[in-house]
Amino acid sequence: MASSQRYLRYVVVAVACLLVVFFFTSSSRLPAGSSNILSGHGFASPSKSDTTAKGDAAIDMGTSPVMSGLPPATIPGPRMNATFVTLARNSDVWEIARSIRQVEDRFNRKFNYDWVFLNDAEFDDTFKKVTSALTSGNTKYGKIPKEHWSFPEWIDTDKAAKVREDMKEKKIIYGDSISYRHMCRYESGFFFRHPLMLDYEWYWRVEPSVELFCDIDYDAFKFMADNGKKYSFVLSLYEYVETIPTLWDSVKGFIKANPQHIAKDNSMKFLSDDGGNTYNHCHFWSNFEIGNLNWLRSQPYIDFFNHLDKDGGFFYERWGDAPVHSIAAGLMLPKEEIHFFNDIAYYHVPFTHCPTGEQYRLDHKCHCNPKDNFDWQGYSCTARYYELNGMQKPEGYDHEA
């Protein structure tokens, strides 16, 4: 009897052991289609080459997944003769470092375009060291000639000083600043003529402390060239009336003297509500712009700048480079040569351009709040641009107005 019981216990133990072995060997094998399950959660099954990496060590799918869909370090294809350009001082180094990082992360790490930095003084070693370490393309540093950053001989400096005093009392932004006026004049008529810029055909202007909110997965310079564009923007608005009281009078004088420079199918309706008699103050915000340098260096644009410069409004008032560029593009370029980059999300204090269109924002990893988008607000001129060009406004714009 005792021997029978011992025999029965041996049988039970043996069966139990067999069950345990069967359980573990079965559960260690992935069922058919398990690689698709892993791929659906962001993992890719290792290929033969993956599993014979250095040391012939197989990849552990649980701790070292091979991620799929990562972008290449650079996007292949031809590059344009283009550069970023920044007007900055040595004290701007950390603000421009932020801007460079934004541009590189969202765009230029894929294309490696050059960067030109311009200053009315010599750049110091810290500025050069910090900025060159952040860029994927070559960096170039140039000093602005004194004759491009000073009062021209025809300006009455006493009269200009009185204007600055009056504007200071009226609390007009930058109204009492000499350097701001030099900057506006330089950006209007000289940056594209700097020796370092003569090497290029296209430019993208970048200022300190700007932000890009979305990935840009195509070459914006090549887009401009391939589609016959000469000037572009992301934000538009009305200029401060107090800063340009006689600008349009000067423009009308130029039109009368140079009718040959005015394009037939221009954007006058963006600039004026009465056929050119008065200026409605709309302009493209020039702290962001991608444009063609050959157009700025052309005789029509040079004639336009020289006419305005002789009238003295950069110093007797406070003419900005934004309305100057905008009026020139609006009058001297056919309207189809001006482009609105809805897909380049951008911030410069205090305005935000956040692309209208939820799917685009999701697809391009945008981190801007669409409620901050300025495009369809009352002080924006972007709706005028759409109307002028017979364009349909993006889906969802009415929820942002």
TrEMBL record:
Family matches, as InterPro entries: Glyco_trans_15 (IPR002685), Nucleotide-diphossugar_trans (IPR029044)
GO function term, MF aspect, one: alpha-1,2-mannosyltransferase activity
Keywords, sorted A to Z: Glycosyltransferase, Membrane, Transferase, Transmembrane, Transmembrane helix
Active-site positions on this chain: 289
Gene Ontology biological-process entries: cell wall mannoprotein biosynthetic process; protein N-linked glycosylation; protein O-linked glycosylation
Species annotation: Trichodelitschia bisporula
Protein name (record): Glycosyl transferase
Transmembrane spans: 7-25
GO cellular component: Golgi apparatus; membrane
Family: Belongs to the glycosyltransferase 15 family.
Domain of life: Eukaryota
Pfam families the record matches: Glyco_transf_15 (PF01793)
